[in-house]
Amino acid sequence: MPRIVRKADVVWQGSIARGEGTLHAISSGAFTLPYTNASRIADPEGKTSPEELLAAAHAGCFTMSLGSELARAGTPPERLDVRCTITMDEVEGRGHQIVHSEIEAGGQVPNCDDASFAQAVEAADAGCPFSALIRASATVTISVAPR
Amino acid sequence: MATDRTVSATWNGSLLEGSGTIHSVGSGAFGPLPVSWAARAEDPNGLTSPEELIAAAHAACYSMALSSGLSKAGTPPEQLDTSATVTFQPGEGIVRIALTVRGTVPGIDAAGFAEQAEAAKKGCPVSKALAGVPEITLDAELV
Question: Could you give the residue ranges of the DSSP H alpha helices within chain A?
Answer without folding.
Answer: 37-41, 50-72, 114-127, 129-134
